[in-house]
Amino acid sequence: MGNAVKAVPWLLLVQPSSRVWSLMGICLAAVPAGVWMGWKFNQRLDQLQLYRACYGLLTVTALKLLWDGIGGYLR
Predict the structure, then answer these.
(1) What value does the mean pLDDT take over residues 41-66?
(2) Please, which of 10, 20, 22, 32 could form a disulfide with 16 given CB 3.0 to 4.6 Å?
(3) Measuring CA to CA, which residue among 68, 47, 46, 65 is closest to residue 57?
(4) How far apart are CA 50 and CA 48, in angstroms?
(5) Domain boundaries, the chain
(6) Helix, strand, coil percent values for the chain (each to nearest 5)
(7) CA–CA separation, 47 vs 53, rounded Å?
(8) What is the spatial distance between Cα 12 and Cα 21, in angstroms, rounded to a whole number?
(9) How would you label 31-70 residue by residue, b for 16+ Cβ within 10 Å and e otherwise?
(10) Are 42 and 50 in contact (CB under 8 A)?
(11) Could you read off the pLDDT of 5-22 as tens digits, one per residue?
């Protein structure tokens, strides 16, 4: 819902071309498929596996951000 609220002012400020409208239509059609796939994956995963995967991704992301921050500071 939040993205739909942001889309209205964006569409008023930017005059999208026909290519952009086509891309938005394709993406809009892909949303139900993504929700359905997420629902199915969530049903198949054990909650402990899901927590481990999420925290693993968060840890990798945090380490990458720290690496970039320290590297930028030392330059």
Answers:
(1) 89
(2) 20
(3) 65
(4) 5
(5) 1-37, 45-75
(6) 90, 0, 10
(7) 10
(8) 14
(9) eeeeeeeeeeeeeeeeeeeeeeeeeeeeeeeeeeeeeeee
(10) yes
(11) 887 888 888 888 888 889
Flag whether pLDDT at 30 surpasses 70. yes
Strands (E), 1-75: none
> In angstroms, rounded to a whole number, what is the distance separating the alpha carbons of residues 5 and 7?
5
Question: CA–CA separation, 49 vs 42, rounded Å?
Answer: 10
DSSP state of 16: -
Amino acid at 47: Q
